[in-house]
Write a structure and sequence with these properties.
single chain; 855 residues; alpha+beta; seven-stranded mixed beta sheet; 16 helices
C-alpha cells in the first residue's frame, strides 16, 4: 500500500534530474558561446581583478589598438584619439560597430562608437575619439568591443545612429592600455611631423623625470616622427597638441579627411609651424595635391644657396661668434646652406603674410598667416639644414620661444645637472614650491551640489523621525498610556503619515526647472570669421527618464559641414579621489558618436551631471569694433611719442563688459647676442654659462585693469586715454605676469590665458621661484599673441538667467517642456592684430662687436 508514494518520489527525483541536466546543458552552451566570442587577451574582470581570457574558438572580429592617442601621447582630462585595427574573420562584408567603453563620474558607461564596413580577411583601421577622464586608471585600461549592426543605418547620422546599431557581441579586448606612460595631466604636448627635430626636443627635458621644466613651468611631451598617414581624421584626435611642427614630410599624403581635421584644429586655435627645407618646399608651394595650400602664408619663397648661417647666429645658438673676441668661441655654423626667405604676395590680405622675424638685412625669415583662432607660421633661415639638426640646433629659447610665444630656458638633462652643481643648488628640486594650478577653481565655480542638498537633508530627517515614531518612541508612548495593544495600528498610521510627508516634501522641493551653472570662455580674433569657446557646466536635470544634451552648430549648412562640435561628461580633477569607482546602483550605458560627439543622451536621476563642451562656428556676439579714423587711416595706430596705441573701440554686447583688462603688445625684444654669465662650482672653479633671455615680448607691453562699473554697450573706449590713466608701474606686463598666484578665480583665469609667458624660475633664483600648472585650459593659451603686435581685451558678461545667450555656446538640455535656466561666468577674449613689426637686430659697434642694449 506504500508503493505508490515511493514511486511518486522516484518520479519526482527523475524529473528533477532531467531538469538539472537540461539546465547544465543550457549553461554549458551559454558559456561556450561567450568563450567563442571572447578575444584571447589578458584583461580585468568586472571587479577589477586580474584575469586571463581564453578562447577555444577564434572570435568573429579581431581587435587591437596601435595608437593610444596620436603618437601614443594621451593626456587625461581631454579628448584623445584611439586608432583601432580590426579584422573580420567571416566571409561576407558587413557593417559593425566598434565601441570604446569608459566610466563617467556617476558610474554610467559612455560608449564611444563608430560604424565601419568590414572587408573580410583583411586588416583595417579606424579612429575612435573619446574624452579621457582625469581619474582614468592606466592599469585598468579601457574596453574595446565590436558588435553587430542591428537594422539599417544608411542615412542615419549622429546620435540617432548611435541609438540604433549596437547588437550582438562579435569580439572584444577587455583591457586596452597605452604603449607608453600617459602624459601627465599638467604636461603639454608638442608634435613633430617628420623625422627632423630641429632642436625642439629640449622642451621635453626635465630633472629626474619630474613633470615640469626646471627653468620654465610645465614640461612638454615631444611626440616625434609623426607621419601624415598616421594623422587622425577628426580634430579631437589633435586636441592634446597646442603646436604641431611640420618637418620633412609631404603634406599631400594627408588626404581629404586628415587635411580637414588638421584645418579645423588650426581654426580652433592650433598653431601649425612649417619648417621649410629643400625636401618639402615644392610640396607646400606648388603641389596641387596639397589640400592645405590655402592656409600656407601668402608669400613668395626666395631660395638662396651658399648662405653662411653665421649671420643668423643669435637666433640659432646662445654661444657667441668666433669673431666676437671672447675667450669662449662657439660652435662654427654651416657656411654654405640653402636659405629660404619670404616676400608677401601682392594679393595677400592684411593677415595672410605677417612678418614675425627678420634677418639682419631685413629679409623675412618667419612669416605667419592667421587662420580662424589659430595660425600657420613658416620658418626659413636654413633651419631645415640637417647639419643644424645633428647638433640639436636651433635652440628652443633662442628661436622657438620667439616663434611660439613661449618663455623659459631649456637645456638637456645633462646640462641641467651641471647648472645645478655649478650654482650651489640654485636649480635643485628641493627649492621648488608645490605647483600652483591656475585653473583649479573651475569645478568649484560650476558646483551645483548645494541645490540637491535639501533633498538629502529631508530624506535623513524624515527617516530618522519615522524610525523614532514607528519604532521605540511610538511603542513607549503607547505603553505609557496602556494602549500597547494598538501597536500594529500605530505602526501602520505612522507609516502612512511619513509616507505622505516624504511624498509631499519631495514634491515641494523637487526642482521643476533645468538648472545650469557654467564657466564659459569665448574667443574672437578681429577680421576672422570663426569663434571658438569652451564650456564647463553642471546641469541639474529634474527627471528620471534620461535627457538629451546637445551642442548645436550655428544652424547654417556651412557651419554644420565645417565644424565638429564636441560634448563629453566631465568631472574636475581631484588630488585625492573620494569615492573613486563608486556609482549609482542602476548605472547604465549610453552611446556617443565618436565621429561627431555633439549630442549625448544620458541617464538621469534628478541629480547633477557635469559636461565639457568645445564649440566653434560663426561669431555669435557683437564683439568690440574699432571706430574708423576721421582721416580714413588705420583705426588704431601707435603714438610715436608715448609708444601707446591711439584709437577708439565700441561694442554691442547686450550688457556691460566688466572686469575689463586690456593688453597692448608692442612686439618682441630686440635680438641680441647673449653675454655669458659666470658662476663658481662646488670646487671653486669658474663655470661659464649663458643664460637665456626669457622675454619674448617688448618692455612696452602695457595693461590697465578697470575696476569701475564696466564698459557699457555703445560707449566709446579711448585706448590712449585709458593707458595714460594707468600708472607706469601698472602698465608693465611683467608686473601682471609675475603676480600670478594668490588671486581670485577670475584673475587666475586671466593669468592662465598667458600661461607660457608667466615669469619663470631663474638660475640661482633660490626658493622664490613659483611653478604654475594647468589642468583644464589646454588649448586656450593666448601666449602666441605676445610675440607679435596686437591688442587684447578681456572681460566678463553677466547676461542673466533669462537671456538666451547666458551660455554663448548654446548647450541645450532636451525635453519638450523643459527650460534651461543658466547662470555662471562668461569670459570673453578679443584680439586685434596690429601691423607686424619684427624685432630689430643690434647695430654694429665700432670695434667690430655688437652693440647690446642694457638688460
Amino acid at each position: 500500500m506504500r508503493t505508490p508514494p515511493v514511486r511518486r518520489r522516484a518520479d519526482w527525483r527523475w524529473a528533477g534530474a532531467r531538469l538539472r541536466l537540461v539546465l547544465a546543458a543550457a549553461f554549458a552552451c551559454f558559456g561556450l558561446t561567450r568563450t567563442s566570442l571572447a578575444q584571447p587577451d589578458e584583461g580585468v574582470d568586472g571587479d577589477g581583478g586580474d584575469r586571463t581570457q581564453t578562447a577555444s574558438v577564434v572570435s568573429e572580429v579581431s581587435l587591437a589598438v596601435d595608437q593610444f592617442g596620436l603618437g601614443d601621447a594621451a593626456r587625461p582630462g581631454g579628448w584623445i584619439g584611439l586608432r583601432v585595427v580590426f579584422q573580420d574573420n567571416t566571409d561576407r562584408p558587413r557593417d559593425i560597430v566598434i565601441q570604446a567603453e569608459l566610466r563617467d563620474a556617476d558610474g554610467d558607461r559612455p560608449l564611444y562608437e563608430r560604424v565601419v564596413t568590414s572587408n573580410p580577411g583583411r586588416r583595417q583601421q579606424t579612429w575612435l575619439y573619446l574624452f579621457l577622464p582625469f581619474d582614468f586608471d592606466p592599469a585598468r585600461g579601457l574596453r574595446i568591443v565590436a558588435r553587430e549592426v542591428r537594422g539599417e543605418t544608411e542615412g542615419v547620422e549622429g546620435a540617432q545612429a548611435a541609438q540604433a546599431v549596437a547588437g550582438r557581441l562579435l569580439g572584444e579586448v577587455a583591457r586596452v592600455q597605452s604603449g607608453k606612460p600617459l602624459v601627465q595631466r599638467n604636461e603639454g604636448v608638442l608634435g613633430i611631423v617628420g623625422t627632423s627635430a630641429h632642436g625642439l626636443t629640449l622642451y621635453g627635458s626635465s630633472m629626474q623625470g619630474e613633470a615640469y621644466s626646471p627653468l620654465a613651468h610645465e614640461r612638454t611631451e615631444i611626440a616625434a616622427q609623426l607621419a601624415p598617414l598616421d594623422m587622425p581624421d577628426r580634430w579631437m584626435g589633435l586636441a592634446p597638441y597646442e603646436v604641431l611642427v611640420w618637418s620633412n614630410a609631404d603634406p599631400a599624403e594627408l588626404g581629404p579627411d586628415r587635411a580637414r581635421a588638421l584645418r579645423e584644429w588650426i581654426e580652433r586655435g592650433g598653431h601649425l609651424v612649417i619648417v621649410l627645407s629643400v625636401e618639402n618646399q615644392v610640396s607646400w608651394t606648388t603641389n596641387q595635391n596639397n589640400l592645405l595650400r590655402d592656409v600656407f602664408p601668402a608669400v613668395e619663397v626666395v631660395t638662396t644657396e651658399g648662405v653662411d648661417l653665421e649671420k643668423y647666429r643669435p637666433l640659432i645658438t646662445r654661444q657667441p661668434s668666433r669673431a666676437s673676441g671672447r675667450n669662449d668661441p662657439g660652435l662654427a655654423l654651416p657656411s654654405a646652406v640653402v636659405v629660404h626667405t619670404f616676400e608677401a604676395l601682392a594679393s595677400a590680405g592684411e593677415y595672410d603674410a605677417m612678418p614675425i622675424l627678420a634677418g639682419p638685412d631685413g629679409e623675412c625669415v618667419v612669416s605667419r598667416r592667421l587662420v580662424g583662432q589659430g595660425a600657420v607660421s613658416v620658418v626659413g633661415m636654413g633651419v631645415g639644414s640637417r647639419v643644424l639638426s645633428n647638433f640639436g640646433l636651433p635652440l628652443a629659447d633662442t628661436l622657438w620661444n620667439r616663434v611660439l610665444g613661449w618663455r623659459g630656458q631649456f637645456e638637456t638633462s645633462t646640462r641641467l645637472g651641471e647648472i645645478a652643481t655649478a650654482t650651489r643648488g640654485g636649480l635643485s628640486l628641493s627649492n621648488r614650491r608645490d605647483p600652483d594650478i591656475l585653473d583649479r577653481g573651475i569645478d568649484a565655480e560650476v558646483n551645483l551640489v548645494g541645490r540637491s542638498l535639501a533633498g538629502v537633508v529631508l530624506a535623513f530627517a524624515v527617516f530618522g523621525l519615522y524610525w523614532v515614531v514607528a519604532g521605540p518612541g511610538g511603542y513607549a508612548l503607547l505603553k505609557g498610556t496602556g494602549n500597547q495593544r494598538h501597536a500594529w495600528l500605530g505602526f501602520v498610521g505612522a507609516a502612512a503619515l511619513f509616507t505622505a510627508i516624504a511624498w509631499g516634501g519631495a514634491t515641494i522641493i523637487k526642482p521643476k526647472q533645468v538648472q545650469v551653472r557654467h564657466v564659459t570662455i569665448v574667443d574672437h580674433v578681429y577680421g576672422q570669421d570663426v569663434d571658438r569657446g569652451r564650456v564647463w557646466a553642471s546641469v541639474l536635470i529634474p527627471s528620471y527618464l534620461g535627457a538629451r544634451v546637445q551642442v548645436p552648430s550655428d544652424g547654417s549648412d556651412e557651419g554644420l559641414a565645417r565644424f565638429t562640435q564636441a560634448l563629453a561628461p566631465w568631472q574636475g580633477p581631484r588630488e585625492v579621489q573620494i569615492g573613486a569607482g563608486a556609482s549609482f546602483p542602476d548605472a547604465r550605458a549610453y552611446e556617443v558618436d565618436a565621429r561627431s560627439p555633439d549630442t549625448l543622451r544620458v541617464p538621469t536621476r534628478a541629480t547633477v551631471k557635469q559636461f565639457q563642451a568645445d564649440w566653434a562656428g560663426a561669431p555669435r556676439l557683437a564683439w568690440p569694433t574699432p571706430v574708423a579714423a576721421p582721416e580714413s587711416g588705420p583705426p588704431i595706430t601707435i603714438d610715436p611719442e608715448t609708444n601707446l596705441p591711439r584709437g577708439v573701440l565700441t561694442h554691442g554686447f547686450p550688457v556691460a563688459l566688466r572686469d575689463v583688462m586690456i593688453v597692448y603688445v608692442g612686439g618682441q625684444t630686440r635680438i641680441v647676442e647673449t653675454s655669458p654669465g659666470t658662476w663658481t662650482d662646488v670646487d671653486g672653479a669658474p663655470t661659464v654659462f649663458s643664460p637665456a633671455r626669457t622675454w619674448a615680448t617688448n618692455a612696452q607691453n602695457v595693461f590697465p585693469v578697470f575696476t569701475t562699473d564696466g564698459w557699457l554697450p555703445g560707449d566709446s573706449l579711448d585706448l590712449h586715454a585709458a593707458f595714460e590713466a594707468a600708472s607706469p608701474a601698472a602698465r608693465q606686463m611683467s608686473t601682471f605676469l609675475t603676480g600670478a598666484g594668490g588671486q581670485n578665480f577670475l584673475r587666475r583665469v586671466y593669468h592662465s590665458s598667458f600661461f607660457h609667458q608667466l615669469e619663470t624660475p631663474q638660475v640661482g633664483g633660490g626658493q622664490s621661484a613659483d611653478r604654475f600648472h594647468r589642468n583644464s585650459t589646454f588649448g586656450l593659451d593666448l601666449s602666441r599673441w605676445l610675440g607679435q603686435p596686437c591688442i587684447i581685451v578681456m572681460g566678463t558678461l553677466d547676461l542673466g538667467e533669462d537671456d538666451e545667450m547666458a551660455i554663448p555656446l548654446d548647450v541645450r538640455v532636451g525635453g519638450s517642456d523643459r527650460r534651461t535656466h543658466p547662470s555662471g561666468t562668461t569670459i570673453v577674449r578679443w584680439v586685434y592684430p596690429l601691423p607686424a613689426s619684427p624685432p630689430a637686430w643690434p647695430k654694429p659697434r665700432q670695434d667690430g662687436g655688437d652693440e647690446e642694449p642694457p638688460i
